[in-house]
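(Structure overview)
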Amino acid sequence: MFNIGLSELILILLVAFLIVGPKDLPKVARALGRFTRFLKTKWQEFLQETELDETVAEFEAAKRDIKRTVKDFNPLHEVKEAQDMARTAFTGDGSAEPPPPEEKKEDHSK
């Protein structure tokens, strides 16, 4: 949720230990836990009352559909078919072999 690593957590706990002291640290941690639970419940109530959770779910579903459509659409297949048709038309014999590459002539007149 907060993307806090172990080293950051240890640093936060060390600072809290120095500021609050060992005697009151459990009380402060308990109060912080209650406060975060209170905020979570109020946030969920807000989402339910405003029906934003349904709207967010609809947008996420649309996002998944768009990603799936983009992933499924691959124009490379159509390009390969057109390339094969062009090769067939160019060679005239029905084989899809590419013509041999032309040799580049080097200019030694410098």
